[in-house]
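User: Predict the structure for this protein chain, please.
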Amino acid sequence: MGQSFETGAEFAAAMDRKDPLAHFRQRFCFPKTKSGEECTYLCGHSLGLQPNTARSYVEQELHDWCELGVEGHFHAQNPWVPYHRLLAGHTASLVGANPAEVVVMNSLTVNLHLMMASFYRPTKQRHKILAERGAFPSDQYALQSQIRFHGYEPEACLLELAPRCGESCIRDEDVESMINDQGESIALILLGGVNYATGQIFDMEGITRAGHRKGCIVGFDLAHAAGNIPLRLHDWGPDFAVWCSYKYLNGGPGCLGGCFVHERHARSWSLPRFAGWWGHDEASRFRMDPQFRPMAGAEGWQLSNPPILALAPLRASMEIFMEAGMDRLRTKSISLTRYMEFLLHQRISQKFSIITPPAPQRRGAQLSIRIPAGARDFSDKLAAAGVIGDFREPDIFRVAPVPLYNSYQDVYRFVQHFAAALG
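Assistant: Here is the predicted structure, written as structure tokens:
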């Protein structure tokens, strides 16, 4: 972490020239300003950019549908029945799992509900769910509705972790302390791998170990972690995880999400689940038997045949990920966020604060900047200048220099516009 930075534009250009991943930028489509210039796009934490090959991947499936009709299920260039398996190996590699432990299906919240149908089994003695107070609202809605579905009240069952007074992020020791103190009553621990608002990385391995020691089921929402930081889900051992694919994974708006189920549950046939025919034993699926027999592994939680046109762009992106490699991407990501932080503190007075943890190993490809005065107007000024980030009420501006397609010059330009907008 001894890398040193300089403030001038020539330094950013020199860093880009020697960046071994710089050429991947050319494989993505960048939005343009009204004058036709490329935007400074730092919003991959909200919606990733389109891979150049996404169009041809979708067009191939449209062609096969046109030419083959229903026969495309078995005779398309990439047959549709096993199409989701074209993503299994890449997905498993990305999240540190075995191929049988992952499946691409549904949306994140649908997958979360499916996982909780199986793994949140509250009893009189053990019925609580441990979550973040600052979790993404969709997770909070899902947790509250599951608690009510089982006849309990969120006020009594939902334990929420919060930062200490005056702090923005949750301390690891406070997470472990809560698990140790309340673990006997906790049925499920459900935390984000990376907090969407602050960019904080949670100690997923330590949380899993602490939760299992107390007999809790442990799951993670990896919406802001998959494709952002290296993951080792199989080795860390959570019971399940879910994520979306339209942020760092560049699968397109509303793209299918992913699901991980640890292999120790691969043949847990007694687990209740909401069943659908695509999760039925593949060898007899088309016999249309009335009795559901789940497939082993994560595929057994599938409901319906996957939408091929939605999977095609994700294939295009995942192939780029496999070429780039998460370890190299993570190295560049740390450098980009450190460079951004350096420039912000060099150029600008104390009109802002960064609430993302300062330690690089505690954050992903995101800085969350608190702007106490006029944050909404500030965000609008940046957008007018062709800088695309993400404003969150009441005063947070989130930016993510994504290592797969962002450059050091992107970071440099952002900071110049940031300083100008702050005045």
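The longest helix spans residues 326-347.
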